[in-house]
């Protein structure tokens, strides 16, 4: 599997090992290797050092494997100055992984995509929820660099298997991923939760967010390996959609001491700030539209119910508090 030290990937790795799979995990550095060995001290893990932007090592890393689990992709919390800083590694890395899989004779690929590749289809009514039949339009002015990167990377994978039909591809498209991290390096996904908890977001952006628990995302990836009905399909990993203000209220109901936002930011204020902030411009692009994506197809095909968003959010918050307390005690 690629990107094995990521927030989602660590949960996938735990699920794979629990089910008896032998795993060759790609990492970017020896530090990440030590991190995974610390989490899974008794596992007989193999490691390969790979870079999404470089050709070296990919073919050797996939030799002897039966399944490619491609989870690696850049995920920033802020909008980059140059969208290509996200788009090129995502697309090129996906194609490198797919080509190496073909060279290695791999017939089964599970790709981590995103609801961001689904929920902004140009021409679709803005308040109409989306599903797996929808595709984000990467050239639409409302689409940010991350959304474009996930869309173009997933499209590149589907185009590749169209040309190589002996490979069976499944994509898992999570919304914002909450839930319990396995260590303190939880990255962008839970940084938003931390910001909502600590007053760093004094007023909530007036937008909604589709969300899912990381444990559900992991089990979907692993279950898809042998589930025939998932081959050639994309699945939204989506438990529910809520306003950011509502997410803050869920956290406040769990712990009244948290400094969660008490109101939404007015659009006129965002327009002023957006003149100077690329990130606020991205928020404005989501005003007046829903980012809701249905998870019905996944629940029906995989035969489970998603963990409620509130439970995933509180699990995130508990972990953030625990790790912050540990940092203070050092």
TrEMBL record:
<protein>
    <submittedName>
        <fullName>NAD-dependent epimerase/dehydratase family protein</fullName>
    </submittedName>
</protein>
<dbReference type="InterPro" id="IPR050425">
    <property type="entry name" value="NAD(P)_dehydrat-like"/>
</dbReference>
<comment type="similarity">
    <text>Belongs to the NAD(P)-dependent epimerase/dehydratase family. Dihydroflavonol-4-reductase subfamily.</text>
</comment>
<dbReference type="InterPro" id="IPR001509">
    <property type="entry name" value="Epimerase_deHydtase"/>
</dbReference>
<feature type="domain" description="NAD-dependent epimerase/dehydratase">
    <location>
        <begin position="1"/>
        <end position="234"/>
    </location>
</feature>
<dbReference type="InterPro" id="IPR036291">
    <property type="entry name" value="NAD(P)-bd_dom_sf"/>
</dbReference>
<dbReference type="Pfam" id="PF01370">
    <property type="entry name" value="Epimerase"/>
</dbReference>
<keyword id="KW-0560">Oxidoreductase</keyword>
